[in-house]
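Data availability excerpt. The first of two example chains:
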Amino acid sequence: MIFVWSDLLISATIILVLLILYFIIRSSPNFISLTRIFYAISFFLLFYIPKLLFVILFIFNELIKFLINAVLIKNVKFRILTFLGFIISIFTFITIVYGIIAGKNDFTVRNTEIYTDKIPKSFDKLKIVQISDIHIGSFYYNSDKLTKIVKIINNLNPDIVLFTGDLVNNFAEEADGFDSIFLKIKAPLGKFAVLGNHDYGDYTVWPTPEIKNINLSKIIFHYKAMGFNLLQNRSVIISNGKDSITIAGVDNWGLPPFRQYGDLQKTVENVSSRSFTIMLSHDPSYWNEEIQYSKKVDITFSGHTHGGQVGFEKFGIKWNLVKYRYPQCAGLYQNNQNYLYVNRGLGCIGFIGRIGIPPEITLIIIHKK
């Protein structure tokens, strides 16, 4: 009886907290309330998923026991699935706790090499570091973790650093006070970025459109204050001696219900098809729909998917929660000589944790073939 009442009390408390935070964020949008909702969701999952797994196996156990007893007409004690359900629920609980406490901070460098005959000789062995989806509000003012990310990036000695969007969850205030940390990222050939879908502030209720636009302007300011050249449907040329390459960045474009701000034709209108061109596109859907067919783009860097945040990538197996929505969800993809790399992101959204999909810093070296 004590267990039942405790279970009901915990359930009622979690649901009440979620409702209160929801009404707060609806009436007064701010990132603290939004982040607290994410933590409440995480504790909701922590409490209910293990219990749900146990209940499912318990029901199957009782059903099998009923059928066995109906056939044998005797009282057989069948508890295997109930015991298995108990073990699985405990393991799931521990795994979710790990994801919330440690998994989200297990910053991992993933190395990839690409060989192409199009890149100029003076750019041979070009070192590119990509980061994506910081969702800085999910770090909840933990500057130590962000400083650690910057140190990892600088220790890789990149020539170019690319940031493929989603600096924030929704609100510009999330990035307040962190400009100086990301300004310390060093890249002799430049730091470039594009906006992600969350940077536009589309996922909250704003009192007026003007306030939403002011929020976007502040986010754009933060990108620039961090030292990033923000590319909004435009391209720039990088020179290295007599040779040059092109860096292009398209505004976010996603399949419905995501909005389509990006304009590929405008982005590449001044790009020569002879130039080795790197494209930044937050959502990989745009590569899948259009960019991969462009003769003006050689490699695209995307993020957005977070690699699912929860998944399994070992022993040649690659499974995550978003692969059925995004065919290109994590890692390197290729269509003829057109490449795409999808970064698994650094931050979290919704569930404040990562299980099997650690936060990623990508190092790609491009070799002259």
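And the second chain:
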Amino acid sequence: MRRIVQSKKLQHVRYDVRGPILVEAHRLEAEGHKILKLNIGNTAPFGFEAPESIVADIVHNLPDSQGYADSKGIYSARTAVAQYYQSRGLRETSVEDVFIGNGVSELITMVLQAFIDDGNEVLVPAPDYPLWTGAVSLSGGTPVHYRCDEADGWNPDLADIEAKITENTHALVIINPNNPTGAVYSEETVRALVDIARRHQLVVMADEIYEKILFDDAVHHHAATFAGEDVLCLTFSGLSKAYRVCGYRAGWVMISGPQHLAEDFLEGLTLLANMRMCANVPAQHAIQTALGGYQSVTELIGPGGRFREQSKLASRLLNDIPGVSCVEPRGALYCFPRLDPEVYPIESDEAFVLDLLRAKKILVTHGTGFNWFEPDHFRLVTLPDEETLTEAIGRIAEFLETIRD
């Protein structure tokens, strides 16, 4: 039999958050080592449990969740999502504007498959959540990375976006609050991004999964608010992070703007939704409960809350390390520190995090895994409790000292 190889469509697809470095971590665990995994924003292993009301509603509805649902999602979940956006000023949002999916990840892939033709370009932030880059490539498109400016609090470089738009550019991806940097964009910035899309007739794809995880005076602004009736905007969000139910896989995409100009695309998206039959039905019952009930994430993001305090602790400890700088996150669950190349002349950041893993049993993700341009950053998750986080960053500091020496 001939050799079986992977599809050429995967040639430019990477997902280093769960890539070769995680394979090495598994090998070390098999040898008996205890690895602290700070590579992925999975809330459950760090003691963050789902609200009891959500679990209770899923259990209550299990007997009625055995069959296929509508391919766009159960009516109560879609109604809850529509009403959620109505309460945030998007009053024209209806049930028919909402698709429920197995998490935002599935919906990103479905949307891009329905939208992209070979050679279409999509503007994606750098650094980005790497699923966006991978899904664009897998769909036959070309991801074009626009720079976010670390010196400006990781805000998008608007001039760089404008300079990279060509006749083949079809969409602009906005990740706000941003993973991996923790940036939360001002109203002025979000307006400016949407205005670029308006001038160049681009579709806006707004990844807003961390919209409820905000610290101090940070305010989230929905891109759809400024898109109005003349910019098609696809807003992605879900329950994974704010409601600590990553494994339930409950997410949605809401379509707003001139849908009469997008009927053909929406027909294609509906086709793909039909082909996968439906999203996980039990988890859909969590959506109405979550969006309509007590917002328990408030206790985690305010003063004394674990999300907030651990984020600030991680940022402070990282900045205390010689040659390391970290823009303090204003939201989300990560830090994205920079290693000064003059102090740490790292040629391969992937090799750096592998060496760190082997030496200190700490698993982080290298910055180029988020399509950053230089090998001088890494991302770590701020979910461990303060004692564990202090120990972990202490080990990172010890390892960096060996490089300085």
